[in-house]
């Protein structure tokens, strides 16, 4: 039976009535109804095309035919419980292992980033027999209760900080060389920021508490698209291990070649650096719910030794794994990492050219197709230009380009497009940003009512 198509107004009314209002929409003041998509383009109910600069889940492009084909073929054949032996899960684990340091070789397949992070927490705690967790301020690690607890981005607005969570905040703001304590020009910001984590660890241990892990996004996303200084992770890992904890890298936003030069963003921190646990999700299934935790034999061994089965009804089913394999194939065949390097550096160059013309652009940062630029009211005080950022996103949407804001002050415009984003797309979006900035910086005093799109 064909699905009935409602007019947009009716869809909106039904959504308001039937769907929890805390499930927010993009552009909530004037949402888009998208009815089909291909590659990096979205189409609304009237056939209007939008350039998608924000869908990091549809990693190899919306509705990629190879992914659809792999999913359909496997669905026609079998989608059984992962307690039966099946080739897809082992082949997929082996392919993923080939992208990772040798030490990371035991996989658990799950269905969402939150499930992956929750399991990572269990693994870290079981292995270390410690409970406490060290996180960066503004971090987001998922929507489960356990993860809200370790996500300052959420818990500051809810019940607050639990006694077993330690936020690298007063001692060290985000390891951000634009806005943080140690900025560009500092001889070794990586070491300096890592030392502030060490100070926190010492303080926590002096209170008799025991640390299970440092839980961190390889590139903090909702924290404002931060590129961590070189040397930071290896030093923090050294300190956290010395304190009896393990290093968990959340690659849910950043994995699968988004940074171009490497398959995983933690690899930007050096060949020799290896986390103890890595979690992955969003881009993994190109939109199909597929996520994973990988860890070492030792950590997995301790988890097994507790004698309790880890059973996940849908995790690692043959269809999910067929899709995961197809995503890896497309990344390779279409050389999407090279595309991320090429298009990402062009986009960054164009954004830097805009920065030279518009003082409101305080910083342009990123790697591959994980890019952001920060709007500030002045370049010395770095006062966030939040209103202007919201207005820019709104105006871009009117010009059929989807972008959104991020960061604690919603003043960072973030790019995480499907990896097939092209040079022409980069030129189109930067040209439009230039026009809009020209127009809005002249009219900035006009009072604005903007509903900010805080998306992730
Ligand atoms: C860094 C990070 N970790 C974890 C999650 C949670 O993933 P999911 O929404 O698939 O549960 C997200 C989702 O936005 C995320 O950005």
UniProtKB/TrEMBL annotation:
KW Lyase (keyword) present: yes
Recorded GO CC terms: mitochondrion
Keywords for the protein's UniProt record, in alphabetical order: Lyase, Pyridoxal phosphate
Cofactor: pyridoxal 5'-phosphate
Record PROSITE patterns: AA_TRANSFER_CLASS_3
InterPro entries: Aminotrans_3 (IPR005814), Aminotrans_3_PPA_site (IPR049704), PyrdxlP-dep_Trfase (IPR015424), PyrdxlP-dep_Trfase_major (IPR015421), PyrdxlP-dep_Trfase_small (IPR015422)
GO molecular function list: lyase activity; pyridoxal phosphate binding; transaminase activity
Keyword check for 4Fe-4S: no
Pfam family, one: Aminotran_3
Family affiliation: Belongs to the class-III pyridoxal-phosphate-dependent aminotransferase family.
Protein name, as recorded: 5-phosphohydroxy-L-lysine phospho-lyase
Organism: Electrophorus electricus (Electric eel)
């Amino acid at each position: 039976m064909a699905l009935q198509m409602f007019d947009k107004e009716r869809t909106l009314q039904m959504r308001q009535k039937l769907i929890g209002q805390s499930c927010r929409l993009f552009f909530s003041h004037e949402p888009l109804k998208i009815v089909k998509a291909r590659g990096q383009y979205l189409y609304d109910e009237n056939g209007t095309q939008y350039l998608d600069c924000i869908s990091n889940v549809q990693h190899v492009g919306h509705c990629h035919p190879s992914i659809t084909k792999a999913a359909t073929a496997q669905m026609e054949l079998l989608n059984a419980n992962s307690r039966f032996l099946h080739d897809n899960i082992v082949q997929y684990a082996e392919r993923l292992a080939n992208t990772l340091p040798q030490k990371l070789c035991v996989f658990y397949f799950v269905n969402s980033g939150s499930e992956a992070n929750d399991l990572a927490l269990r693994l870290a705690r079981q292995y270390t027999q410690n409970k406490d967790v060290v996180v960066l301020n503004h971090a987001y690690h998922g929507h489960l209760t356990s993860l809200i607890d370790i996500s300052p981005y959420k818990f500051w607005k809810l019940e607050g900080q639990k006694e077993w969570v330690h936020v690298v905040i007063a001692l060290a703001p985000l390891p951000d060389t634009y806005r943080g304590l140690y900025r560009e020009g500092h001889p070794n910001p990586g070491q300096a920021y890592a030392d502030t984590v060490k100070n926190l660890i010492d303080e926590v241990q002096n209170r008799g508490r025991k640390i299970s892990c440092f839980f961190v996004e390889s590139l903090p996303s909702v924290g404002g698209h931060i590129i961590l200084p070189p040397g930071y992770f290896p030093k923090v890992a050294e300190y956290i291990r010395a304190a009896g904890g393990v290093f968990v890298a959340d690659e849910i936003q950043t994995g699968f070649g988004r940074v171009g030069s490497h398959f995983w963003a933690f690899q930007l921190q050096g060949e020799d650096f290896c986390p103890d646990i890595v979690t992955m999700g969003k881009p993994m299934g190109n939109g199909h719910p597929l996520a994973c935790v990988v860890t070492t034999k030792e950590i997995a061994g301790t988890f097994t030794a507790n004698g309790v089965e880890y059973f996940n009804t849908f995790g690692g089913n043959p269809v999910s794994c067929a899709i995961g394999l197809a995503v890896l194939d497309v990344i390779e065949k279409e050389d999407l990492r090279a595309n991320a390097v090429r298009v990402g550096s062009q986009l960054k160059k164009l954004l830097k050219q805009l920065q030279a013309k518009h003082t409101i652009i305080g910083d342009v940062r990123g790697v591959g197709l994980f890019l952001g630029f920060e709007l500030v009211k002045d370049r010395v005080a770095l006062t966030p230009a939040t209103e202007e950022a919201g207005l820019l996103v709104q105006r871009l949407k009117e010009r059929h380009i989807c972008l959104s804001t991020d960061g604690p002050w919603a003043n960072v415009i973030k790019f995480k497009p499907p990896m097939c984003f092209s040079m022409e797309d980069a030129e189109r979006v930067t040209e439009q940003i230039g026009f809009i900035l020209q127009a809005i910086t002249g009219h900035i005093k006009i009072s604005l009512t903007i509903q900010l799109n805080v998306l992730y």
